[in-house]
Each structure stands twice: as C-alpha cells, then as structure tokens.
Amino acid sequence: MAILYAVVARGTVVLAEFSAVTGNTGAVARRILEKLPENADSRICFSQDRYIFHILRSDGLSFLCMANDTFGRRIPFSYLEDIHMRFMKNYGRVAHYAPAYAMNDEFSRVLHQQMEFFSSNPSADTLNRVRGEVGEIRTIMVENIEKILERGDRIELLVDKTATMQDGAFHFKKQSKRLRRALWMKNAKLLYLSGIQDKELVVPSDNHFLPTLNWTI
C-alpha cells in the first residue's frame, strides 16, 4: 500500500490508529503531534526519509497519515478528508472528551479499509477534483520533520514492510485455494454429466485439503 499508517488524535491523545507496517511509525507520529503549535495551519506536511506525514487539523482534532513520498499529496489528503468525515459522523463531540483509544476497536478497521481503497483504487484520485481542492493542496509546502524539533533532537523513522508483504501473500494464497476448489467442483460436475467411467480426478494441492476421487458412473 502507498498509505501505510493513520491516526486520529485530540492533541496528543490518540483516539484511533492503524499501521500496515511494523516499526516506530506510531511513536514518530505522536512526536509530530506533540510538537505542532496550536495555531498550525489546517493542512501540513512533513517529510522524513522516503515518507511524508500528512496532517489535517479540523474540529479540534488531528488526522494524520504517512505515505510513500512518491504518492504525492492529493490522494493522502483525500484519504484524511474521508476519514475526518466518517469519524465526525460516527462520534461527533464525543471525541472532544473521550479517553485514549476509546474509538480504536471500531475505527481502526475503518482506517485500514479506507487506507486500502485510497492506496489502490483509481477512482480515489477523483475525489479532490470533484471537491475543487486540488489548487489548495498544491500550495501546501512539505517541510522536513527536523523543522519542528528542538535543536539537537532527532527522530529516526524505522519502517518494516514485511508485515504488509506477508499480509498480501496470505490473501493470494487464500484466493488460490478458492480457485482450486472452484475448478475441482467444475471438473467433478463435468465428469458426472459426461458419463465418464472409471476416470481418476486429481487436483494438485500443496495443502492436501482436496482429496483424490475415483468416479464410477
């Protein structure tokens, strides 16, 4: 995925978050939120290594996501706008006094679901165009993360995408099993309907969950 991490926070109080990678991304995000001035602009970007942290501040809350630096700014901010809309619709003013991670069980799934959509669905790129926000987003400057840190302070971002790749491999394997099962059923029906006698139906399976059948009709 191009968008790898997202968090919704009230100041430094995290209300919900999701990460598609392992590492210290969440810790870095909280450091950024901690260092932001109260009167910061509603849309801010900070770069660190090969990643950009996009921040949308609205309704007293901060909506932050981290994406690959090659992904641009328009789609990540479309993602944040979508998350902001969904979050406020579900929780509204409750978010202004809710304790840490109060919405995490429910809303982390939304963060993940929309993260996948905006990272891979071509139609996601049309949202900001429809809203007429392209020009505004182009004016957002991407500052280096060092700008908001105290002198001598430094954040080292550690990102391990192994978890994301393993998750993708799991889904591919699951889909392969479903395909083999569908082909097995199709072949079984064809054998039955064609009246083939004493034919051995064999389906390759690395997990041995499909048996070898001898059909006699």
Automatic annotation (TrEMBL):
Membrane topology: Single-pass type IV membrane protein
Domain called Longin: residue spans: 7-111
Pfam family, one: Synaptobrevin
Chief location category: Golgi
GO CC, alphabetical: Golgi membrane
Gene Ontology biological-process entries: protein transport; vesicle-mediated transport
Record-annotated V-SNARE coiled-coil homology domain positions: 126-186
Keywords tagged on the record: Coiled coil, Golgi apparatus, Membrane, Protein transport, Transmembrane, Transmembrane helix, Transport
Keyword Membrane appears in the UniProt entry: yes
Tagged with keyword Transmembrane helix: yes
Subcellular location: Golgi apparatus membrane
Top-level taxon of the source organism: Eukaryota
SMART domains linked to this entry: Longin
Role description: Involved in the targeting and/or fusion of transport vesicles to their target membrane.
PANTHER family per the UniProt record, alphabetical: SNARE PROTEINS, VESICLE-ASSOCIATED MEMBRANE PROTEIN 714
Family that this chain belongs to: Belongs to the synaptobrevin family.
Name by which UniProt lists this protein: Vesicle-associated membrane protein 714-like isoform X3
Gene: LOC111303816
